[in-house]
Amino acid sequence: MRIMGIDPGTQITGVAVLDTELPEGLFHFDYLQTPASQPIPQRLSRLFEYLESALATWKPHHVCVEKGFVGGYPSATLALGMARGLVMVAVERARDVIYYEHTPAEVKKGFTGNGRAKKDTIRSYAETMFNLDLSYKGGEDVADAIAVAVCHARQRNPQALIT
Questions:
Q1: Are 114 and 41 in contact (CB under 8 A)?
Q2: Among all residues, which ones are annotated catalytic?
Q3: d(Cα 94, Cα 2) in Å, to the nearest integer?
């Protein structure tokens, strides 16, 4: 099964594609960064084009994202909601792709075993599991995308991607 995990954002969006049939598991990872100086409509348009292209190229069976966290920053929460909405629309338009959401605690627990894992722990696990260096800008977003995809795979098969 091919699973695309997406960590959506209006500035940086992380994407990871897992194939549970492959021994190495991680098939592709990438991120999109849009300039903060661009107006939101332009950034959202670029994000939508990127998502459509990624879905057409990697042809996942499932797409999963982390459910939104509503914090104390209303404008950031609104921007995240817009980005997540674009993911939903892009998945719907892709046809034959199923959209899933997982809570932050589910993702952390499913990936690290600790439902309260910190960002640096998520990144460290992703680096170790797939022998990556995610210390670059966007790496944290890629790590989050990997975490949600692995969590999803493990919910379907607890032995998936055990390394």
A1: no
A2: 7, 66, 141
A3: 14
Residue 19's Cβ-side half-sphere holds a number of Cα atoms within 13 Å equal to: 10
Give per-residue pLDDT as tens, 115-124: 999 999 999 9
- CATH 3.30.420.10 for domain 2-156, yes or no, is yes
DSSP classification of residue 10: S
Question: Quick one: three-class SS letters along 111-161?
Answer: HHCCCCCCHHHHHHHHHHHHCCCCCCCCHHHHHHHHHHHHHHHHHHCCCCC
What is the greatest pairwise CA distance in the chain?
A: 44
pTM: 0.94
Residue spans of the domains in the chain: they are 2-156
CA gap 158, 58 in Å, rounded:
24
